[in-house]
Specification:
The chain has one domain: Winged helix-like DNA-binding domain superfamily/Winged helix DNA-binding domain (Arc Repressor Mutant, subunit A). Helix content is 55%, strand content 9%. The chain has helices at 8-20, 26-37, 43-56, 82-101, and strands spanning 59-63, 76-80. A two-stranded antiparallel ribbon has the order 1-2. Helix 2 (26-37) crosses helix 3 (43-56). It is elongated, with a radius of gyration of 16 Å. The chain starts with 7 loop residues before the first helix and ends in a 6-residue tail after the last helix.
């Protein structure tokens, strides 16, 4: 596969989708990211990134059951694919290796 770097926001969205599991949908991901980072994360940026990650094959989505609470709309939930998980693992290994190489400078 080779070393692969992804954008910071893509990385955060993938990690959040993993953490939320079956509750990973656009609004919940944006909310969780805002809580985790302390910075306001827009739903628009989140949905654009979800679409891009899905196009790359790193996430897949499915529509849930329509809800009267949502005006008859269904939630679109997301889950990480095997390829997406491989990319997250690869990114983690790369970052850990890089952090270990500069640990002395950080003290």
């Amino acid at each position: 596969m080779g070393k692969f770097l992804m954008g910071e926001f893509e990385h955060l969205v993938l990690l959040t989708a993993i953490r939320l599991g079956d509750d990973a949908y656009g609004v919940s991901i944006a909310k969780a990211l805002t809580e985790q980072t302390g910075k306001e994360v827009s739903q628009a940026a989140t949905y654009l990134t979800l679409k891009r990650l899905e196009e790359k094959g790193w996430l897949e989505s499915k529509d849930g059951v329509p809800s009267t609470v949502r005006g008859g709309k269904a939630k679109r939930t997301y889950r990480i694919t095997d390829e997406g998980m491989a990319r997250v693992r690869e990114s983690r290994a790369t970052l850990l290796e890089m952090w270990s190489e500069i640990s002395e400078q950080l003290q």
